[in-house]
């Protein structure tokens, strides 16, 4: 069940042409534009590219939440969830089958964006194993939050508005656009509680291979991001039955 649903969802995601724009084309355009604008400027940790590429990679990973909401609302409004409720299929396998494809998409997206930064701008990827762990943990976090949002959403338009707040608000507070140290103290105080801040800080430490700092920051970020994602996914499972009941009313 999980594998068949996984394969179906992954195929549907790749058939959605808008995904290529939001997840790949647009972030690459942003990276090129801002890398050109700040080509002579040094960022806090190395250079402008070391701020811009991982910063926009982290930011655009959260757009996957729109796809997750869209797919769940599609199944709810089409009556599919009502039909599933009459079978032996349990909520957890169904949620896994819907969740895992989006994690795969984020892993591909981050590989393309960071690879682009490496190939075009010579971005140092530093400790590859650490970078992979951070990206995986962030993918679990972003998609887990997407699951909760899907369970609570009444419409796609409302969900898109929330995703924009989370994405752009987190980008500002988390220092994805500008070095975190250049932000006002009040913004920094709030930004410390955003997953975007933890992810970027850990990525920069891993890429710069700051030996004394790297291990602590990487493991703290990985653990925190994983815990957020797992807690969000758990909450989504608890909310699933109420969400599925709405399928009977459509």
Automatic annotation (TrEMBL):
Question: Which PROSITE patterns does the protein's record reference?
Answer: ABC_TM2
Q: Which Pfam families match?
A: ABC2_membrane (PF01061)
The UniProt entry, under PANTHER family, shows: DOXORUBICIN RESISTANCE ABC TRANSPORTER PERMEASE PROTEIN DRRC-RELATED
Protein's name in the database: Transport permease protein
Q: Name one GO cellular component term.
A: ATP-binding cassette (ABC) transporter complex
Subcellular location(s): the record lists: Cell membrane; Membrane
Annotated membrane topology: Multi-pass membrane protein
The answer to whether UniProt assigns keyword Nucleotidyltransferase to this entry is no
């Amino acid at each position: 069940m999980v594998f068949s649903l996984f394969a179906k969802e992954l195929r549907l995601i790749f058939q959605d042409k808008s995904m290529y724009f939001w997840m790949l084309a647009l972030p690459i355009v942003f990276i090129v534009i801002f890398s050109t604008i700040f080509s002579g400027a040094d960022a806090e940790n190395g250079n402008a590219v070391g701020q811009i590429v991982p910063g926009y990679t982290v930011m655009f990973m959260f757009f996957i939440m729109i796809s997750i909401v869209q797919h769940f609302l599609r199944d709810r409004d089409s009556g599919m969830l009502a039909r599933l409720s009459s079978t032996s299929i349990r909520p957890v396998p169904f949620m896994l089958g819907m969740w895992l494809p989006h994690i795969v998409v984020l892993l591909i997206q981050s590989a393309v964006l960071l690879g682009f930064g490496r190939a075009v701008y010579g971005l140092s990827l530093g400790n590859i194993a650490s970078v992979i762990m951070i990206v995986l943990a962030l993918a679990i976090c972003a998609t887990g939050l997407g699951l909760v949002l899907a369970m609570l959403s009444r419409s796609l338009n409302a969900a898109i508005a929330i995703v924009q707040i989370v994405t752009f608000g987190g980008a500002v507070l988390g220092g994805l656009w500008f070095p975190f140290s250049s932000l006002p103290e009040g913004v920094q105080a709030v930004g410390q509680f955003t997953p975007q801040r933890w992810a970027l800080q850990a990525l920069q430490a891993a890429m710069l291979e700051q030996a004394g700092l790297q291990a602590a920051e990487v493991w703290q970020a990985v653990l925190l991001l994983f815990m957020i994602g797992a807690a969000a996914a758990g909450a989504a499972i608890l909310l699933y039955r109420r969400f599925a009941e709405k399928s009977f009313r459509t």
